Every structure is written in C-alpha cells, then in structure tokens.
C-alpha cells in the first residue's frame, strides 16, 4: 500500500518514469553532464541536454546509451539513480519495486547490469520488460489474445519491429536505426550540399519542424544557422522539406526493410490478423510526418500512429505494474530481489 512502484522506460533518447496509480510523472532526456577533471556528474536530464555542444572544456555532455546499447555503464547507473531519487525523494524508506524497459538489443550482461544499477539506486525488486512488448501494451494492442498484432517502435537509437500473440513475441527484428541516425543523415546532407556544419540539436529541430517520410500536401521550409566550412564563419541558409526527405530516405528504407522482413517471417494465420488490424507505430520516430503513409505504400497494410507515441513504452511498463496479475507473464521471470 505504501510502496512506490515505478515503471521506467530507459531509452537512448529519453527516460520516462511511471508511478503506479499516478501515471507518467517524469520525462527527461537521457543525458548526463560530467566534469571530466573530477569525473563528477554535474547534472542530468533537461539541464544536461541544454549544454550539449555548448560545454566548456572540462564539462562534457554524455549520452550514456547509444544505438540501443549501454555505452557507459557507470554513468547510466548514476543517471538512473538520480532519476529514481528524483521521483522517490531522498528517503528510501519505502523502497520501490521497479519494472524497467530496456532496448531489446542489449546483451544478457547489460540486462543484468541495468538491474544492478536500479538495485544500487535503491530499488527493492527489479523486473525487466522487452521494449516492443511494453510499446504494444502502452499502445493498447490486445497482446494477450490469440491474434497477431504488429508494433513498430521507432526510438532514438533503435527501431524495434515485433509481432505479438498470446502475450509472447512471435517474430521480431531490431535495427540500430532511429531518430539519432535521422539527425546524422540531415547533418551529412547539409554538409555535403551546402558546406555548412550544423550541430545535433539543430538537426533534430529541422527533423521535427520540416522533416517528412512522404510527400507533404504543403511543403515547408526553414531557416537554419551553422558554420560555413569554407571560411569558418557563421552562416544562415533556408532548407526545404523536399531536401530533408531526400536526406532521410536511406535511413527510413532500413526501417521499412525491417518491417518487411518481419512480415516475411510471420506465420500465415498471424499475417492475416495483421492485415485486418493494421500496423501500430510507436516511439518518437512515429511522429515523423508521412511515416505512416510510407509504411502503408510499401507494405499495402493499414498503419496507425499511437495516440502518444513518446509515452507508449512508459505507459506499457505502468500497465504491467497496475495489472501485475494479468500482465505479469510478460516480465522476465527471474526478477531480482534485494
Ligand atoms: N515530432 C517528431 N518528429 C520526428 N521525430 C521526433 C519527433 N519528436 C521526437 N522525435 C524523435 O524521437 C526520438 C526519441 O524517441 P523515444 O523517446 O521514443 O526514444 P527512446 O525510447 O529514448 O529510444 P530507444 O527506443 O532507441 O531506446 C528522438 O530521436 C527524437 O528526435
């Protein structure tokens, strides 16, 4: 009754925390600012993201998870601990039970490492849930029924495609392509075409403001600032949505290919269900304009975008906490008790 059970979506781009009975209570970028002289963590989340690309020599903004894997374990553990403290307060009197969702590409060693980090941060019991399963539950798909559902979760570091039936993953594919690669593709394009160097934050802004996967009814344009590689001076240019679509095409094709490969490996009865129910897109990448249309054109199947794509995974971990009796089976069975 007093326990603060929490669900955590530990993503490469964002970390979200769900508090049982309350809903999502924290959304922060998975970024840590570290003082390289003392190895001290200065700040995490929004505060740390604001300094990316703007840090003085001794302070470095790090993203401890990259491409769907934990690039720096100690910093990930530190970040997780700070986030858990933030939502549970400093008093660890009522230590939380934690359901944590991690990218499905992580190794067994990393999975154990994340559990350990959560325990070190004060959790009483830690269970892990696969990302596409959490996304499917969060998007409201009928995962427990004997009917096939397809979910495509496009995050920062990875895109996960899965077909789920009877509470289990029947076919799945994970590719290390997501919002980060889209941003890098934009940086490379602008550099090649305009000799202009832009930062990751600008590239993400361009993607969100004018990026698209399919022709737009009304094409858009945006003025951007960067550093001219010819004379080294700051420069403004105007970019158009058609150009950004070109820049993104190759990366998007990798996501489409992963969907097609998963469909090819799906048992025929479940394929029939997917044709009836359509494909569900979740994760921040699902917000890219026209992505549903592109996937529809390429597969011939109806595509739906989840209502709040960025929240699906966290909402899914929360639903498991709220209905542990019904959904507990989707957790890995060897939860770690302290
Ligand atoms: N409106 C938008 N259009 C396109 N991309 C967006 C939009 N809003 C957010 N994104 C992108 O979504 C990504 C973050 O999505 P999300 O929070 O689902 O990832 P994550 O769960 O942290 O990553 P992963 O699943 O790889 O661990 C970022 O790359 C961000 O730029």
TrEMBL record:
**Where in or outside the cell?**
Cytoplasm
Q: Does the keyword Calcium apply?
A: no
Keywords tagged on the record: ATP-binding, Cell shape, Cytoplasm, Nucleotide-binding
> Which domain of life does the protein's organism represent?
Bacteria
Indicate which residues the UniProt annotation says bind ATP.
12-14, 156-158, 204-207, 284-287
- UniProt xrefs under Gene3D superfamilies: 3.30.420.40
Tell me which CDD domains the record gives. ASKHA_NBD_MreB-like
Main subcellular localisation: cytoplasm
Q: Which residues form the signal peptide?
A: none
Family of this protein: Belongs to the FtsA/MreB family.
Q: What does this protein do?
A: Forms membrane-associated dynamic filaments that are essential for cell shape determination. Acts by regulating cell wall synthesis and cell elongation, and thus cell shape. A feedback loop between cell geometry and MreB localization may maintain elongated cell shape by targeting cell wall growth to regions of negative cell wall curvature.
- How is this protein organized at the quaternary level? Forms polymers.
**Protein name, UniProt field:** Cell shape-determining protein MreB
What lineage, starting at the top, does this entry show? Answer: Bacteria, Bacillati, Bacillota, Clostridia, Eubacteriales
